[in-house]
Amino acid sequence: MRGLAIAAGAAAAAGVLYWIFSEPEGRDSNGATTDEQRQVRREREVRGRRGGAEAAGTSKSAVVTMCSSSVFSLGADGVSWHQNAKTALRELLAEVELIVLVERCTTDEEQALATTELGNVGVIRERCVFSELDESVVHVTRHLNPSAHIDTDSERASVLSKFGRVVLVAAESAGAGPVPVAATKRNIAVVRSVDSVPGAVRALLS
Question: 81 by DSSP, 3-state: which?
Fold first, then answer.
């Protein structure tokens, strides 16, 4: 079952990558390809957002993955957002291509709830990847190969730092205690609150 869950996570990750980087072929009544039309719209969007991203020192083409535990807790009582998490999430969405890995999501009801909550902040359904197992997060993140990854688990951060840059949210309010040993590694930036995450991502990507 664990193997199936990991395989399903990898398949979902592949679907997300396909959705981001590919477009279907087609032509409108004037003979213009769908790709051409979408490219025009994409260029307009880029021009509209480029100023903010350039001012922040990041690129909208950068793909960043984030574990849902960085911004909210998902349980029987629903979604509980961390303080200032929605603001930080919107800030990231304006600067990078963000993919949210929803952890320990085991039911359709939890998926629907997480999708709705994230959608209200601006994360579309196609940018949500659901995972039942903690180890699936590592496999999916490696498959997506992001420019940076945001996590709350020091062990996962240590593993993923071997392959890329990681922001570790080690919140004091969560009882994290001293900065983990993993934080001494070159590719890991440690922050103590989620509202510090956008700045840490900018620093890693600059």
Answer: strand
| Amino acid residing at 89 | L
Residue 74 three-state SS: strand
What's the per-residue H, E or C state across 92-120?
A: HHCCCEEEEEECCCCCHHHHHHHHHHHHH
Residue with tokens 């929803």: 102
**What is the mean pLDDT, run by run of 10 residues, along the chain of 206 residues?**
50 52 45 51 45 49 93 88 95 96 90 94 94 88 95 90 90 50 68 92 90
Alpha-carbon gap, residue 178 to 42, rounded angstroms: 44
Alpha-carbon gap, residue 178 to 83, rounded angstroms: 21
The alpha carbon dihedral of 120, 198, 104, 131 has a sign of positive
pLDDT for position 75:
82
pLDDT value of residue 40 = 47
Strands 165-169 and 148-151: parallel
